[in-house]
Amino acid sequence: MASPSKALRVVEPAWKPDHLPAFPAIALKALQMIAGRDTSLLELCSLIRSDAEFSSAILKIANSPLVAFSKNITSVLQASMLLGFRRLKGVVVTVGLREYLNAPFTPLMQSCWRHSVACALIAERAATWSKLDRDFAYTAGILHDIGRVAMVTTMPDAYARIVESEVDRPQDLLARERKLFGVDHSEAGAAIVRAWNLPGAFLEITSGHHAEGTRCAGTASVIAPSCLLADVLGFRVAKYRGLRGYADVVKTFPTATWEQFPAEPDKFVAELTDEIRVIEAV
Question: Which of 259, 231, 257 is closest to 245 using CA atoms?
Fold first, then answer.
């Protein structure tokens, strides 16, 4: 019998950005059009109509309680016109992220998905209360963890081992990722933004959402606290011992939002959970 010192060591797979699965083309186009004008609405609508799954998902969301239009939406064009270009892009990216993770979800994939959607929903609220760009905040929230999503998609077993045991803070998780894979999910996210030729605003968000002592400007300022608040509210991927309390994290948002958050976190969790379930049912 081999001695413990001679036991086989698990060799983790290397991070290979060139070998990533392709993000759904329609969602990628929507991201690349993020700086476009409303005149691109028909172009995006045409892309959606060319794909049965995306068309079905857009119609389901347009007819869901999340949108609450007063009439039944029966066509992608009608949904696109009523949603508007900016909101439509956010919906398309949400559907794209779900497709990228693949179904059926493993528990780890579901955790990544719910964390991203919770972050997006929180960021959308915070941006609205601060009179910032709510549609970009939502899309940035969905995309902020794309590096981790890619790691989980391409190295599911290895990444599952990353989150098996607790760490004190998200920064400790990044250190664990760098030790095993040579890159952390923030760095991986930045590499993906460059590879997909996405607008530069996403570079700051994917690479800096766990950076300590760094304060982004404008709409990007709500993404890092939204990510942290999603963790605090239980929509987390890893187990953290040292997370700050709800009230403390709320005060890391722009001042204008502080009094807008529900006083009781349990109420907020229930609200977000209901919205995530509606999106998952699409």
Answer: 231
